[in-house]
Amino acid sequence: MTVHGGIGQSIKRKEDARFIRGKGNYVDDVQLPGMLYLDIVRSPYAHALIKYINIEKALKVPGVLAVIRGKDLDAAKLAWMPTLMSDTQMVLPIERVMFQGQEVAGVVAESRYAAADGVAAVEVEYEPMTPVVDPKKALEPGAPVIRWDKEKKTNHIWHWEVGDRKATDAALKASDVTVTQDLYIPRIHVSSIETCGCVAAFDAMGKLTVWMTTQAPHAIRTVFALVAGLPEQKIRIISPDIGGGFGGKVPVYPGYVIAVVAALKTGHPVKWVEDRSENLQSDSFARDYHISAEIGATKDGKLTALKVKTIADHGYTDAAANPSKFPAGLFHIITGSYPFQKAFVEVDGVYTNKPPGGIAYRCSFRVTEAAYTIERLIDMLAQKLRMDPAEFRMKNFIPQQAFPYKSVLGWEYDSGNYGPALRKAMDIVGYEALRKEQLEKRKRGELMGIGISSFTEIVGAGPSKTFDILGLKMFDSCEIRIHPTGKAIARFGTKSQGQGHETTYAQILAEELGIPAEDIAVEEGDTDTAPYGLGTYASRSTPVAGAAAAMAARKIREKAKLIAAHLLEVSPGDLEWKDHKFSVKGLPSKAKTMQEIAFAAYTNHPQGMEAGLEATDYYDPPNLTFPFGSYICVVDIDKDTGEVKVRRFVAVDDCGTIINPMIVEGQIHGGLTMGFAAAMLEEMQYDEHGNLHGGTFMDYLLPTAVETPRWETAKTTTPSPHHPIGAKGVGESATVGAPAAIVNAVVDALSHLGVTHIDIPITPWKVWGLLHEKGAA
Amino acid sequence: MELEGSFTVRAPKDRVWSFFMDPFALSSCISDPHAIEVVDEDHFKGWVKAGVAFIKGTFTGSATIAERVPPERARIKAHGAGMGSAFDADSTIQLSEAGNETTVRWKADVVLNGTIASMGARLLKGTIDKKTNEFFENARKKLEGG
Amino acid sequence: MVEAEVRMPEEAEVGPFVRIHVTVNGTPREAEVETRTLLVHFIREELRLTGTHIGCDTTNCGACTILLDGKAVKSCTILAVQADGRQIRTVEGLAEDGKLHPVQEGFVEEHGLQCGFCTPGMMMTTVALLAKNPNPTEDEIRHAIAGNLCRCTGYVNIVKAVQYAAKKSQGGGSK
Amino acid sequence: MIPPRFEYFAPSTLEEAVEILGRYGGEAKVLAGGQSLLPVMKLRLAEPKALVDINRIPNLSYIREEAGGLRIGSTARTNDLNDSDVVKRRYPILSDAAAVIADPLVRNMGTVGGNVSHGDPANDLPACMLALGAAFVVRGPKGTRTIPASSFYKDTFVTTLEPDEILTEIQIPKPKAGQGNAYEKLEKRAGDFPIVGVAANLILGANKKIESAGIGLTAVGPTALHAKAAADSLVGQAPGDAAFKRAADLAMKLAEPVSDLRGPAEYKRAMVGVFAVRALRTAAKRAGGGA
After folding, report:
1. Residue of A nearest to D100 (CA)
2. CATH number of D63-173
3. Inter-chain contact A100–B81, Cβ cutoff 8 Å?
4. Per-domain residue ranges for chain D?
5. CATH code of the domain occupying D7-56
6. Of A113, A685, A706, the CB nearest to D2
7. Rounded to 5 degrees, what are φ and ψ at A283?
8. Do A685 and D43 touch (CB under 8 A)?
9. Are C87 and C107 part of one and the same domain?
10. A44/B84 touch (CB, cutoff 8 Å), yes or no
């Protein structure tokens, strides 16, 4: 007997009802009486001294009430703020600007239009300084040191390494075959269709409420309390409906702080909403990893060792939203799906005159960089060994019996079964037939390629012993209240941005409590009502908050069992939870449903027992979860133009127990599309003066429905042994796994010409250039 | 953006020199609407309304004669801000006389930052180039004419 | 306390203004707007119909798509005054007396939305498409929505949602 | 992004519109579809003192074929070209182009007149107009005059249109027997500005030889380029790759692309060659000349 909306059912989403009616409530929809608007003056220079800021004309613009400058904030010690990586970031500059598009002053006005006019009227005189744009040049002796405010007079931020350098070098030396490759994973921008913004308001009691596009409202509240010195009970962060996050809405952006200051100064609510060019120019970016890697194998194709050196361009401050102990995120998942005996990884963080950020592109902490690198190298090695890339992977996968598997770089993979996933993808796509077709096409001089990516993800940060952000442990939470009529409300520390939490959380609870999903209201994002949690990013909601839901529900069941025993006049020991109700062992007809028990909890509970039926759980995961998958991409290439057409893309994912198959598939479709975007289209290009070229959607091209491949999805199911319902995260797997499959397919199409690598994004002119170089065009 | 060019005029070096040292003479070589104000003999400020067709805005800025080796060589630095952008031009002129002709060799390093560089590149590419050449072409005409 | 110059507003001339009359989702509306007022701001802030969203400002993303005299257009790149005397239909005007439009139904049934931000624009484009081409092929659908960017769904289920709506509409569903 | 302030006029006659433009002497801008103008104003890269909205002027948005050929009113929307049966049947090059201008929503607002008169070298229709030997009827204070497309484009955003003149009609010669044409565009992504675009128009004589030809290039110069030498090289030739490749080479020589986000110059130049051949092949096929 199943409960309606329980685990495994593709029920329709609860949240859709408001979205399809245009009744969503996004930040820009929030309207308060007397609300003012903030607009921001931004720097045209990537690196310059500010000589003066003249606000006279701006203040004369009708409707303009105030202009806020760095020196104004300095008085309140708010000109600088800490980043999530304990670096420092300017809210507004006092003496220097560090990237093109940096906030320089805030103009507060009665309308959006007046604020924009005010921004145009602010006069700033700069003295240009030499910008540092290339992170490699930034490390050269004599390079201008851009962080004048730091003790350490260098652009080098930190060095991080893991693994055994000596042993790895030795193993590579001893390898029959090695491949060395530089890979650049360019800076890209997450560009959720809703930009960032907030509405800040103080009430008569001095309580601050901020409606904010944030994926982590609770952490934001604490950061505000620490930075602004406001008592935490007087701060309420409300994260309303979010128009896509993908990590771009984790950081605290200067605009939020300026809006709060403006509200304080003017005594009016203040709204700030970025336009798209501001979003592209100044919000958190992703990637920007300059990688040099070496991989080795024996001549019969057994992997031996992996060595990776990376220069990470962080912009002018390290504001990557990583767990604090992991400056390079979880990049050391880079051994991927393979049992390397020896590996060494090092990363150096570097300052440049670019906006800060890092990781915000639907990617769990640098895992895309890792998966892309290893899956590219595996293909290059197979190519060098003249082995089929599928066969080569099959030969080297971590065997199923090895799980839980301890990787040489220190992770314990919870569960995996890689071979069947790849085999399934091969069967669906018709791998062997495609290889035949490829041979025939090559004879005719036509270019087609088949690319594989068998990635391992790492999500669900994370265990408190190692995972925290600014000291806040990365647990998450669920609080359930069952009402007398057997309906329920559940609140969480996470915040959905399209993932469908209102539906999936209700499904977990339905399964655990025997209450239909439609009878369970799910709330998130209001720090005054929801239990504390670290928020939604890095595919952590299901692994952490989803687990909290199950655990809180089980606490409810504990108490419910006592009430059921009381009602049935048996001892709790005689009861079992079966078919979503408590029944007497061997006497299934003698049973109480959760609805009956809930009513009793308020009307007829045992003497000495507290009334009510509520529970809260703060879940500290014992380990992360390790979703995986095998993707196969088939491309055709136009020899004349270098255009790449993705003919087919088959994605087999394994994210453990699936709560709502419809939603999981949707997440995979979206992730695949962002992986495709990074592989084929997107790159933030800066000129030598530090100007971002393409600071609007006219030039920064997101995929449309036309070129986006017709995704084919399938699954295998390998539950997580440590997660209460066996679930793993899935939101980012596809973004992590897709790029390598696409690039591998393109390189495979050109491999017979001697092509071994192409950096993303794969533009037609890059392919055309290679074809010319190899005399094949 | 590095630009350079040269032209020869039938005029003595000294006249060419004084022409380039005269802010109002120079100002007369700017075809866009503008105004110039002399702060002192080495410093000028003013505004110019520049762009292509309807894509134009007003830039306010200043110019400085950074170096003068009469009547041989001069270096002029100009800076302007407008349209959410800024331009910085560092230009040198080098004069050489042959008979009754003077040859002017000019170099200009023009850097554009901000909105135009970032979002208007597709729209305004080549404009700076045109404007700069136009400026020196006007100078040539004036020197020839006078 | 933060120090900065604050200036109280004074009654200075703004504008110029024009008076416009439009019919929005069947209801006549009249307002005085600044000539530069963008239609999307008029709809969101003057009419308080916030289902129409703003995503890019440069007529690329289509989050602001509405129907103007039945044609799908991007309201962030149209002046409110250009709509004077014309018919505007927004997402709020899709459902009729509580009954969902087949397009709305399609997006729910086929999971054609995730964050919901591009959804109103996407649905308005779909309504216009189906009015013109009641039975579009997948290729026609994908080209028809090329001016509406979605960052969440990968478009697969949006295509299915449109196909669902097409079938449903022909099965006599409201148009 | 908020545009700066401006005066707004919606005249109901061309005379009135011209008079207003004259009054503002270059500081006023015609508002047709606004799909190029408004984004530039929102970026505050343009601050016209006044906008003259010509959409309220009656009888300016027609598409009809007359004895002389196709007549397109300047406020006809680019999507109207897609919907027009006569265009599809007899001027397919315009359907080719209209189908790849930005996206369907932009095409519902953007006008044919705006596309050809904006002076953006990345617009698709100018190259077609050059290939077809179209002419533009403009109205000014001194009445109307007709400007051949081949002498219309001066520089980026600069045309022979005076500040107080308005494009009112586009005239395209009636197709002859044995005429075929096509527009081929290479784009980085659907709806993006072209990397390159090539428009080709061929007229085959009774002897199946090319009697006359026209070629226009998009996005490889300060304006749309009229590849006259390339087109002339085809005259008297039999349609086919030999002749097409020669013409393509001449078109490549004419092109002066710049390296930018849409590719390096040498790639764009090479693509002019590839797309010239493709456009000519399609044109020849449509002309009934096989190839």
Report:
1. A706
2. 3.30.465.10
3. no
4. 7-56, 63-173, 179-286
5. 3.30.43.10
6. A113
7. -80, 165
8. no
9. no
10. yes
- State the DSSP code for C45: I
Helix (H) or strand (E) holding A109: strand A103-109
Do residues A776 and A638 lie in contact, with contact meaning Cβ atoms separated by under 8 Å? no
Other Cβ atoms closer than 10 A to D249:
16
Q: Does the annotation mark A363 as catalytic?
A: yes
**Cα of A635 vs its chain's centroid, Å:** 28
Q: The CATH number of the domain where C113 resides is what?
A: 1.10.150.120
Task: Map out the domains of chain A as residue ranges.
Answer: 16-22+476-619, 31-129+195-242+249-282, 285-390+412-461+623-773
Q: Do domains A16-22+476-619 and A285-390+412-461+623-773 have the same CATH topology?
A: yes
Integer distance in angstroms from the first to the last C-alpha of chain D? 50
- A31-129+195-242+249-282 folds as Aldehyde Oxidoreductase; domain 3 (3.90.1170)
Supply the ipTM of this predicted assembly: 0.97
- Catalytic residue status for A607: no
User: What span, in angstroms and rounded, lies between the C-alpha atoms of A442 and A776?
Assistant: 12
| Residue A188 amino acid letter | I
Pairing of β A587-593 and β A476-482: unpaired
Note the pLDDT tens digit of each residue in C101-118: 999 999 999 999 999 999
Tell me whether residue A18 is one of the annotated catalytic residues.
Answer: no
Burial of residue B69 (CB within 10 Å: 0-12, 13-18, 19+) is exposed
User: What CATH superfamily classification does B2-145 receive?
Assistant: START domain (3.30.530.20)
Q: How many domains does chain C have?
A: 2
Question: C69 and C38, same structural domain?
Answer: yes
Q: Domain A16-22+476-619: which topology?
A: Aldehyde Oxidoreductase; domain 4 (3.30.365)
Q: How many CB atoms lie within 10 A of CB A762?
A: 23
Q: Is residue C52 part of a domain?
A: yes
Partner-chain residue, chosen from A100, A125, A693, that has the shortest CB–CB distance to B121: A693
Backbone angle region of D212, left / alpha / beta, with phi > 0 → left and psi within -120 to 50 → alpha: beta
Position C15 scores a pLDDT of: 83
Is A89 noted as a catalytic residue in this protein?
no
**Same domain assignment for residues C89 and C107:** no
Among A85, A81, A66, A74, residue whose Cα is nearest residue A50: A74
One of A196, A198, A363, A633 is an active-site residue; which one? Answer: A363
Q: Does C98 touch chain A (CB under 8 A)?
A: no
Q: What is the C-alpha separation between A582 and B51, in angstroms, rounded?
A: 79
Domain A285-390+412-461+623-773 is in which class? Answer: alpha beta
CB within 8 Å of A743: residues ≥ 6 apart: A372, A376, A451, A679, A758, A760, A762
D179-286: CATH number: 3.30.390.50
Nearest chain B Cα distance for residue A694, angstroms: 6
Domain termination site, one of C61, C93, C125 = C93
b/e C95-116 (16+ beta carbons within 10 angstroms → b)? beeeebbbbbbbbbbbbbbbbb
What average pLDDT does this structure show over C117-146?
Answer: 98
Cβ of residue A687 closer than 8 Å to a chain D Cβ: no
Per-residue pLDDT of chain B (146 residues; tens, 9 = 90+): 899 999 999 999 999 999 999 988 989 999 999 999 999 999 999 999 988 888 888 999 999 999 999 999 999 999 999 999 999 999 999 999 999 999 999 999 999 999 988 887 777 767 888 888 999 999 999 998 85
Instruction: Tell me the per-residue pLDDT of A371-417, one tens digit each, with 9 for 90 and over.
Output: 999 999 999 999 999 999 999 999 999 999 999 999 999 999 999 99
Q: Residue A693 is nearest to which of B84, B85, B118, comparing CB atoms?
A: B118
With vertex at residue A49, the alpha carbon angle to CA A43 and CA A51, rounded to the nearest 5 degrees, is 95
| Cα dihedral across residues C54, C60, C65, C67: positive or negative | positive
Could you tell me if D128 and D183 are in contact, meaning their C-beta atoms sit under 8 angstroms apart? Answer: yes
